[in-house]
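ugh ok fine here u go
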Amino acid sequence: MGWDHGYYSSEYYTIGYYREMAPNWLDFAALVKGHRPPRSGEGEPFAYLDLGCGMGFGLCLLAAMYPEGEFTGVDFLPDHIAHGQWLARRLGLHNITFLEADFLELARDPSPLRPATATTGGAAQFHYVAAHGIATWVIEPVQQALFKVAAAALRPGGLFYCSYNTYPGWLPLHAFHQLVKVERQQGAGSDAKAALKRATERLLALIGPAEEPGVLGVALPSLRTEMEKAPTRDQRYLSQEYANDGWQPLYVADMHQRLLAHKLRPLATATLPELFDDLLPAPLQALVMAEQDPLVRATLLDLGTNKSFRRDIFVNGQLHLNQAQRHQALGQLLLTLQHAPSVQEEYTFTTSFGTLTASHVSCAGMEAHLAEAGPCSLEELAESTNLPPEEAIRLVALLLHANRIGLHRGAACEAARASCQPFNAAVIELMLEGAPLANLASPVLGNGVNFTTIQAMAAQGLEQGMEGELLLVCVQAGLAALGAAAFKDAKGQPLEDPAAQLEALQKVATDLQATGLPLLRRLGVLA
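structure:
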């Protein structure tokens, strides 16, 4: 096995950002579970390590939003590190370092990870360590090295965020991975795209038509949907997902036991609704909450929800808060509106265990109070809606999950604003040059907000006084110059009809003028 240890190294990975990796989001989840976060408050200096940072854009966003932090990104793919270093320079960041390194080597000698601000030997200086989409995509020796490095780098009481694929949700696609693996070994050779294509076509033939499925189609009914979607997915994603020798989803108990062996104890999840077992559907809730053993309980939950992905948070030594301390710490958190309140018949929230409906009076009351009073504490929100602390905490978590409200960084916003606004201007320039980026940095939220290339082009046109068909022609010309797809419908298919394209662009422009640009200014994204 070569230097890549069976990992697909022929292409760089897709560029993305994941809100759950933000320090204040992780702190909120830790507080809900009664753990004192590694920072005592917003604006306090900290160190953050991203193991498997990919192309580096997500870490750059965090570095812009948290100028008081020191960020280190590690990846063993040279393309990723070269891009991350270039991107940091282009975006004007000075609090971020990218390191090309192998987890197996770092497990033997972690000293290259020591932050510049560290005054003692070793690498155990990081308040946060993250590994997004790494653990179940690498062979087991590399996985064990990853966990060893994370444990060595994390300071006592620090948080380790680890996202990974889980069973039973991935059981149907295990068949796809196996066929891709055999195709690469015996049929299509090292050409991952050819192997993926052949495996997709052959599985669809084995599954059979919907009206008369084959044995495999009957046994794994959801596999047909996944195979039908495969040709429209980003081929780099498919290659990085399925062309790795170490691709192996794990049941939650197996993953937790592996991390416990490195003294990393499961604490919480960064998927906020899943912090509350009492939000589960009634029959499953009764079964799960009756079980006291944490590994059995987590296994029952995953089986009962057919879970396919986890965003777990682990601690290197728990700092317990009693109930009064927990309520006080959560009550002091500042919150703000992320989107202007809209008239809704009911507040529904999509979760991994189904759609939840929350109290309209309470949710609307919280949003109305934030709209009238501006940013305020969770305790004040609870009082304004006459809610007990625990119920207020649950509703806030659901509203955060839905991006209806956001965590507010308080006094730390001003320093972050000075960092974020030139950063965002540079990101928009990259978008207009064709970079596949889709987020800007909010100094108010300490988290990213979605913003697409089409929105960037439309905003530029609006600023220059364009509208209607002239704006459409200019945006179309800009997309064509970048070789990018034109407007797409709700299913992701290109819109071919000129009238439909104009209608889509007019909606983008109207939304930008009415809510989009004012929102970005309110959140400190734009000056």
